[in-house]
Write a structure and sequence with these properties.
Chorismate Mutase Domain, subunit A, mainly alpha
Length: about 100
Amino acid sequence: MSPLKKEKLSKIRKELDKLDNTLIKIIKKRTNLVKRVLALKEKKNQIVDKKRINLILKNIKKKSIKNNIDPKITNKIWKNMIYAYIDFERRNFNKKK
């Protein structure tokens, strides 16, 4: 790789790092909202809402297409995030106050 390309790559990676820092802040906010949702759930079987999951994924697909983003990418990201939070809720269900 040429020195010029290495420099460009370095700049792009710095931008990605900044974006990652922003995403971490957003994930923290989302986690706090999920904690509030969990506090309202009375039974463990309320954790997974398949209708809501399908609606979210359908909406993300529409928004991805509208914004010219590969919907396969956003589908994978959202599915992983949803199932990570389902796992989080299951692990924390009995710990809630």
